[in-house]
Specification:
alpha/beta; NTP_transferase_dom; two-stranded antiparallel ribbon; Nucleotide-diphossugar_trans; NTP transferase domain-containing protein; G1P_cyt_trans-like; seven-stranded mixed beta sheet
Length: 240
């Protein structure tokens, strides 16, 4: 099964570090975040990757050219200013069956074979992996007189799940693919007609949207122990 990785955006939220690098190429523990993403897929049995590139794609070519990482990496120029939906659309000529699409800056210990099996079981064209939503802020419970009754730092927001990527799509999804943005234009119509499901994962997930996210995770890695996105699985247990 092929894996399309979105890695062509300008990464404005990680400026100025993305002036010279695509955001997924920011170093995490001395290795680009994108490479951690790819290696996590490889560990679970996936070997065929399509990088939907755009902004500073020369950095991707320089990094992967002549490098053997144990998998086939195909870099596609999907357009300097293309949005997420357009990037996947521009890779469709390389897709010949169900495939996974994900973001180049998100790491998770989600068991990918379970996501694929779930997708094959429901028959819809789209499966999105979702993870619990946590507040970005400390949350107060306040009495009418202003007294603080309770304070919780970045609590779990019950019954809300967020898009973690790791999406399984059937090629039939391209039949009525309309619009430029995956999240605003492509996914909502599928949901409206009951053609999308979610695989809920309550394990580790981290999106490296800002440079501070990389710095914080670097500190975690420096403290020792295995990276938190590594699931306790063996490659031979995964079928891609």
């Amino acid at each position: 099964m092929k894996v399309v990785i979105l890695c062509g955006g300008q990464g404005i939220r990680a400026f100025p570090f993305t002036t010279y690098l695509p955001k997924p190429m920011l170093p995490l523990g001395g290795t680009p975040v994108l490479v951690h993403v790819i290696k996590n897929f490889i560990r679970q049995g996936f070997r065929d990757f399509i990088l939907a590139a755009g902004y500073r794609q020369d950095v991707l070519h320089d990094y992967f050219e002549g490098k053997d990482i144990g998998a086939n990496v195909h870099i596609v120029d999907t357009g300097e200013d293309a949005d997420t939906g357009r990037r996947i659309w521009n890779c469709r000529h390389l897709i010949d069956g169900p495939f996974i699409a994900t973001y180049g800056d998100g790491l998770s210990d989600v068991p990918l074979d379970a996501v694929v099996a779930f997708h094959r079981g429901h028959g819809a064209r789209l499966t999105i992996t979702s993870v619990p939503m946590y507040s970005q802020y400390g949350v107060l419970s306040v009495e009418e007189d202003g007294a603080i009754a309770r304070f919780a730092e970045k609590p779990l927001i019950a019954d809300y799940w967020i898009n973690a990527g790791f999406m399984v799509m059937d090629p039939a999804i391209f039949t009525d693919w309309q619009g430029e943005n995956l999240e605003r234009d492509i996914i909502p119509p599928l949901i409206a007609r009951g053609d999308a499901f979610t695989y809920r994962h309550d394990g580790f997930f981290k999106s490296f949207d800002f440079y501070k996210d990389v710095v914080e995770m670097d500190e975690t890695l420096a403290a020792g122990g295995p990276p938190p996105w590594i699931a306790p699985i063996l490659p031979e247990e995964r079928a891609a």
